[in-house]
Specification:
The chain contains 14 helices and 11 strands. It has about 325 residues and is α/β, with parallel strands linked by helices. It folds into 2 domains: about 200 residues, Class I glutamine amidotransferase (GATase) domain (Rossmann fold, 3-Layer(aba) Sandwich), CATH 3.40.50.880; about 110 residues, Homeodomain-like (Arc Repressor Mutant, subunit A), CATH 1.10.10. A 7-stranded mixed beta sheet has the order 5-2-1-6-7-11-10, sandwiched between helices. The protein has a two-stranded antiparallel ribbon with strand order 3-4. The radius of gyration is 23 Å and the shape is elongated. About 40% of the residues are buried. This is GlxA family transcriptional regulator. It comes from Rhizobium pisi.
Length: about 325
C-alpha cells in the first residue's frame, strides 16, 4: 500500500472509531496516568498489538503545539489545536504537581467551558479534578482524588463534594480518578462501554493487568489502622482518617458506605471487635501518635488537630489508649 493509501485507510478508520478522546495535559502532568489511560485505548482499538486507530481515536489537544513537560521531565507534543469539543466523546484533563501555580492557560479553561456547554463529558485524572474544580466545572459533581491530595482539595474547594476512599467516579457528564494505575481502570470502563468486553480484555492482557477494578474499589494505601477484609469497613476507616478531628458523625459515616448506623455498628463489631466510635477514636490517637514521633509540635496543637478542646483531655485519652502520656511517648520515640 502506498503512503497516500495508508493515510486514506487511517482516515477511514478514524471515521468509524466508536470512542474518541481528547487529552488536555497540564504543566508538570503525571506521565504514568496519561500513558496508562491512552495505552488502554490504543490496545483496545486494534487486534494483536498493531496500534491501529480502528475502534478508538485520541488526540493530545492544546492552545499551542509547544512541548508539555511532565513531572518526571519527559515532554509530550500536542497533536491537535483546540477544535470543536463535540468531536470527542470525552475530554480528559491530566493533572500533575499541585505546586504549579497555573497548570493550564486561560485558552484551555475557555475550551473546557465550551466542552461543558456542549455537554461533552469531562474527566479529571490525577489532580485534573483540581483544574476542573478551579474552573467551576465540578459543581453538583463529586470528585474522586488520591488520599494524598484529599486534604488540599478540601482546603481549596470547601464547598465541593470530594472523596478519597475509591479509585474513580464516572457519571454521564463528569469523571474523576485518583491517578496512577486507576487511570487504566477508568479507561477500561470506557472501552467496555463504547467498544466491547473483548477489546477491554485484550488491552488489559497486553498491559499485564489481570482484571479491571471497579469504581467503588478501595484505593490501596498504608493505613493508620489494621487492614480489614470488608470494603465497607475500609471505606469507613479511610473517611475517619480524612476527618481525623472527629467531625464526622457516625450516622453520616454509615450513610457514605450505604448502611444505617446500626448496620455499621454490627459490621464493625464483627470485623474489628470494636464499635465505629471506638475505632474512630483509635484512628485519631494513631494520628496523634504519629505526629508526636515526627514533629516538635506542642501538645495543644496536636490535641486540636485530632479534635480535642484542650491538652489535658487529649493526654487522658492518649494514656488510656496507649498506656503512656503523649510526652512519655515522644521521649521514648526520640530515644530510639
Amino acid at each position: 500500500m502506498r503512503p497516500g493509501q495508508h493515510r486514506l485507510a487511517d482516515d477511514a478508520a478514524k471515521q468509524t472509531a466508536r470512542l474518541k478522546v481528547g487529552f488536555v495535559l497540564s504543566r508538570s502532568f503525571t506521565l504514568s496516568a496519561f500513558a496508562l489511560f491512552v495505552d488502554t485505548l490504543r490496545l483496545a482499538s486494534d487486534e494483536q498489538d498493531r496500534s491501529g486507530r480502528v475502534l478508538a481515536d485520541w488526540q493530545v489537544i492544546g492552545s499551542t503545539r509547544h512541548l508539555i513537560t511532565s513531572s518526571c521531565g519527559v515532554q509530550v507534543a500536542p497533536t491537535s489545536d483546540f477544535v470543536d469539543p463535540s468531536r470527542f466523546d470525552y475530554i480528559v484533563v491530566v493533572g500533575g504537581l499541585l505546586t504549579v501555580e497555573n497548570p493550564v492557560d486561560q485558552q484551555t479553561i475557555t475550551f473546557l467551558k465550551q466542552a461543558d456547554a456542549k455537554k461533552v463529558p469531562l474527566i479529571g485524572v490525577c489532580t485534573g479534578s483540581f483544574i476542573l474544580a478551579a474552573a467551576g466545572l465540578m459543581k453538583r459533581h463529586e470528585s474522586c482524588v488520591s488520599w494524598l491530595h484529599y486534604k488540599e482539595f478540601r482546603e481549596r474547594f470547601p464547598d465541593l463534594s470530594v472523596r478519597s476512599d475509591r479509585l474513580f467516579n464516572l457519571d454521564r457528564q463528569r469523571g474523576s480518578c485518583a491517578g496512577g494505575s486507576s487511570a487504566a481502570d477508568m479507561a477500561a470502563l470506557l472501552v467496555r462501554k463504547y467498544i466491547s468486553r473483548d477489546a477491554e480484555r485484550n488491552a488489559l492482557e497486553v498491559l499485564q493487568i489481570e482484571k479491571a477494578r471497579a469504581p467503588a474499589d478501595i484505593q490501596p494505601r498504608r493505613p493508620l489502622y489494621d487492614d480489614y477484609d470488608d470494603t465497607r469497613v475500609k471505606a469507613a476507616m479511610i473517611t475517619m482518617e480524612q476527618f481525623v478531628d472527629g467531625s464526622m458523625p457516625i450516622e453520616k459515616l454509615a450513610a457514605m458506605v450505604g448502611l444505617s448506623r446500626r448496620q455499621l455498628e454490627r459490621i464493625f463489631i464483627d470485623k474489628t471487635g470494636m464499635s465505629p466510635a471506638k475505632a474512630y477514636n483509635r484512628v485519631r490517637m494513631e494520628r496523634a501518635k504519629s505526629i508526636l514521633a515526627q514533629s516538635k509540635a506542642p501538645l495543644i496543637e496536636i490535641a486540636l488537630d485530632v479534635g480535642f478542646e484542650n491538652a489535658s483531655q487529649f493526654t487522658r485519652t492518649f494514656k488510656r489508649t496507649f498506656g503512656q502520656t503523649p510526652s512519655q511517648h515522644r521521649a521514648a520515640s526520640r530515644a530510639h
